[in-house]
Structures are given as C-alpha cells and as structure tokens.
Amino acid sequence: MEAELGSNPSYIWRSIMAAKPLMKEGLRWRVGNGEQVRVWWDKWIPSSPNFQVESPVANLGLQAKVAELIDHNTRSWKSNVLQANFNPQDRRRINQIPIPRVQESDVRVWGWDKLGNYSVKSGYHVWRKKKLEGLGERYIPVDWKRLWQLQLPPKVRVFLWKWGSNILPTGANLSKRIREACDECPFCGLRETQEHILRDCDWAGRIWRPSALGTLFAEGAEKSSEEWLCDLIGKVSDDELCSVVMALWFIWKERNNQYFNNPKMEENEVMARAEAYLDEFRLGVAVEGPARVPRREVRWEKPERNLLKANVDASKLKEGGTGLGLVVRDEEGRVALAAARRTRVDWEPEMAEAHAILWALDLLQTHAPRPTLIESDCKSLIQKLDRQGNIETELGVIVKEIREKCSERGDVCWRFWGRGGNAAAHEMARVKCRWEETELWLGSPPIFILNVLERDCNGTLPV
Ligand SMILES: [Zn+2]
After folding, report:
1. Span from the CA of 43 to the centroid of ligand 1 (angstroms)
2. Where's the Reverse transcriptase zinc-binding domain (predicted)?
3. Are 353 and 457 in contact (CB under 8 A)?
4. Alpha carbon of residue 74 to chain centroid
C-alpha cells in the first residue's frame, strides 16, 4: 500500500493506484482473538455501514481492544460489557459476529466483497456508488430479479443480461480481449461500444428516432448501458421495458446482419418488426400459458441402509431473531432425533444456515453419533462448503468449523437438497420453544410435524 506511481505506469497498475484510498477505506478486521482490534477506532463490525461502532465512547478505555469483550472460554460476547458500552443496534451487530473455535489472530479483509477478497469488480461498484452519491444521485443497482420476470423470449432475456452486463461482442468489447480485433463501428468508424452501436451511432438513430420509443432512447444519451438500464427500470412499466429491450435486440440483430453480410432489413422496418415480434410472443404466451416448464417437485428421500439423514434449516423469525430446526431420520424414515432452538441473534440467511449446521453437528455428536448425511436447502452455503479454500469473512469462521468437525468425525457429509425435501426441518425451525435453549425430541417425533413426516414417507407414518 506504500508504493508510488513510477514514470510509465501500466494501465492495471494505474487502476490499482487509483483505488488505493478506496482499498484503505474498504479494509476491515475480521475478529479472531480481538487483540489487535481497537473497539472505538477500528473497522470490525461487518454489518455496520462504515464497519465501526456507532455508540460514543463509554466506560471502556479509549484504547480498549475487542479482546476485552470476548469470553474465550464460552466463545461468546460478554453481555454485561456489551450492555454497559453499546447501544442496542451495536449490540445486535456485535452479537452476529462469530468467535472462532480455536483462538486465532485477527485478519484484515476486504469489507465489501462477500468472500472478503478485494476484487476490481467490488471495488469498482463501491467507487461508482460513491461517485454517484457524491453527485447527489441515488445509486440503484440493476434489478435483475425484475428483469428475469419480464415476459420475453429466453434468447432475448439472455441478450438483455449480456447488454446489462456490458459483454455483448461489440468491437470495443472484443478488442479488450483480442488484441487484433477491430474496435470500429461498421457504419461510421467510431469506437463501437454497446452504447454506440445500439443507441448513439447515426445508423442506430435513424432506426429508433422516428419510432414511438424515440424519446426513451434519446434520454439515454451519454449514459452507460448499466446506468440507462437502471434509469429505465426506475421509470417505465414492464411492458415498455419489454418494448425497449426487444427494439435493442432487433437493432443488435440487424447490426449482425450487416456485419456478416446477411440479408438486411430496411432501417424503417426494424422497430416495426421488433414490435410485431413482441406481440406475437405475447399472444403465444397468452394462448399456451407461461412458457416455463414446472419444475419437478423435490421430495424427501430415505437414506441408504445404516445411514442417518439429518435435515437442517434456519428461519428468520417474525418476532426477530433466528429459528433453527433439525430432524434426523433413519433408513425407514423413523425419527431418531428432532430439535428446535430460537436465538435472538439476527443472522444473514447464509450465516443462519451455517449456524444451524454447526448446531446440528453438536447434537448429532451427543445424541446420534452414527454415519450421517446432512441436507440443507441453502445452495450457496453448500457450494461454499464444497469449494476448496478459505473464506475470509465471518462466514468463513463457521464454514471452517463445519469442515473441521466433519473431517474429525469422518462419517458425516453434507449436500444440497431442495426445499421440498426439507419441510420437516423447516417446521422445526419455526417452533415456539424457549429462547436460547435447545428443545429435544429423542426417539419419537413431535406431533406437530407428523403430517410432514407422513408425506415424506408417501403417506405411511413409519413406527
Ligand atoms: Zn457508428
């Protein structure tokens, strides 16, 4: 972080140097034993906007270290110390931070990335967000969820995604990757960026200007594809958005026709064809119903002989806090163990699921120490568990612990299984048991999940 710019810095080096102040701002601590981290001055709270405590300095000393807040024997935060020094908001945030099982030193991580590694992409996003905030504009990330729900043919949706991510194979985008690629617009010779070829080029203008969408296109001038898209999302109806996307797709198709010497359309024809195609598609959808094929419902399946299956789930509670649920069944579908717990800590979904697995591992160890397959319906977490390598953030602390415990046991593994097969655990995670206590059912199941158990075993309740 101390290097200076030389006389002929490379492009990449210049970008890194430009990001230097930003990197400093984005670096924070992941608490290990808390001995290096200063309570009041350092960035160490992942869910706080600037990663710092908000409470004013209280009776802990000015140079107090986070270690003073931790009870390492019980691996918990000292609630009396938290109570005496922090407001409820800070206390809630601090309680979300896991304390590693084995004492380890504090680590500096990149705060804005889910995995804690600095990447140009997350750095760029923060930079852009800050730039826009500085200009007084609101930063709106592209609402992909809404875009995926638009009634558009799949190939047009893929186009939309490529356009919004700025990866259409235009001259400019190709020349970033291929040195010899020509980055000139086939119509006017200017640099062919996405914005140029689909909107700003005179050729494109002749297509869209006379059309009903002309104003929307004109308003996009000077904006990057992403900004323009955000703009449109915030401003127009889904129907209009479909029309714009369809028009862009037709302009892009026509550009390719010209480029590859395919039969061309008349310029004044392109927008009309786009509109007609969209109408046709809508009509088709209306007649045939949604084009989506219903997914086969995922069901619970009995484990193999001599294996237990542990279904685990976590659930965000309406009253605040997190519910954990566990149902362990044998090869006949009989319940060996069921458990529920409610905790006041609000975790992010992945973190909650990870804590649920950790909790389940301890219960299995005590009450059913047999070969077990753990099933969770949190795909992203299972992917992180499967992947080699460390995760730098707080989630990494728990992921590491799950991996360690499973490898110590040697007979426990995990896999992702869809929500339809995890209903029993889901029910358990919503049981209103006492706070911060694990409620156990050994050998016979709680009556309130009997119908789920029955359904899982195709209508017969195993005894
Ligand atoms: Zn051009």
Report:
1. 48
2. 118-208
3. no
4. 31
Ligand 1 centroid to residue 201 C-alpha, Å = 4
Span 117-130, pLDDT tens digits = 555 455 555 555 55
Ligand 1 center to 186 CA (angstroms): 7
241 CA → ligand 1 middle, Å: 24
Q: How far is the CA of 136 from the centre of ligand 1 (A)?
A: 32
CA distance linking residue 26 with residue 9, whole number of Å: 24
Q: For residue 197, report the distance from its CA to the centre of ligand 1, in Å.
A: 6
- Asked if pLDDT for residue 149 goes beyond 60, the answer is yes
Ligand 1 centroid – CA 135 distance (Å) = 30
Q: Are 145 and 37 in contact (CB under 8 A)?
A: no
CATH number for the 308-456 domain, one of 3.30.420.10, 3.40.190.10, 3.30.70.100, 3.40.1190.20? 3.30.420.10
Lowest mean pLDDT among 164-173, 249-258, 336-345: 164-173
Q: Which long-range contacts (CB under 8 A, 24 or more apart) does 450-453 make?
A: 452/423, 452/424, 452/427, 453/327, 453/329, 453/333, 453/335, 453/424
Residue type, 167: I
What is the spatial distance between Cα 405 and Cα 366, in angstroms, rounded to a whole number?
A: 13
Short-list 246, 241, 238, CA closest to 277: 246
pLDDT > 50? residue 138 = no
Q: Determine contact, residues 336/302, Cβ cutoff 8 Å.
A: no
Which residues share a beta bridge with 308?
Answer: 372
Residue among 18, 19, 35 nearest 27 (CA): 19
Record the pTM.
0.59
Calculate how far, in angstroms, residue 461's C-alpha sits from the geometric centre of ligand 1.
Answer: 70
Q: Answer yes or no: are the C-beta atoms of 204 and 198 closer than 8 Å.
A: yes
| Cα 183 to middle of ligand 1, angstroms | 11
Q: Tell me, what DSSP letter sits at residue 38?
A: B
